[in-house]
Amino acid sequence: VTAEARCKLVSWLxxxxxxxxxxxxxxxxxxxxxxxxxxxxxxxxxCFQLLGVTALLIACKQVEVHPPSVKELLALxxxxxxxxxxxxxxxxxxxxxxxxxxAPTVSFFLEHFSQVRLDARGADAGEAADARSLAASxxxxxxxxxxxxxxxxxxxxxxxxxxxxxxLRHRSPLDLRVSGYPEEPLRDCMDQLQLLVSLNGxxxxxxxxxxxxxxxxxxxxx
Length: 222
Description:
Layout: H1 3-20, H2 24-38, H3 48-63, H4 70-76, H5 83-96, H6 106-119, H7 125-142, H8 153-168, H9 183-199, H10 201-207, H11 210-213
């Protein structure tokens, strides 16, 4: 499976997540399951979409109260696959991963660092909320780019929040020292995220709440 094919699949899963109203955590976990399975098992191109919805279903069973049904997921694939095919692949994925489904995700660390920020003296709740929204959307975009798999989820989360504060010109940004990372890897990751944002401004604007988009004049969206 090529990086381009992976990008197309994850880019397709992003609107699927929003279609079902799923959490970012569910998507992050699905991508983690997808990548770990691909690292051990070759997958035919015509089964790649099936693997995507299977990984999403497994992730949703872990973190969502009301996961989408098999029927709903198959409908998004234009019924190109059967219920039995999905169930069979689900069993294969679970066995290949030894049922070890828990994983640190960028979503978890976004919540953690945002809470640390709010707990600090003199915290600006409005700035924290806007930074969290923008950082989450930037991190969501990064899931589709294989180049970002080299960054630990905690580093990616801290860098996304740091970039969000910078882009929104916040007066009380998150103290990135809470991440435990030196300045150099944070700067490197933030620079790569900045490039991602500059190349995908339109896509980013579609992921953001309207009230945050209005504060992002650099997106060039009316």
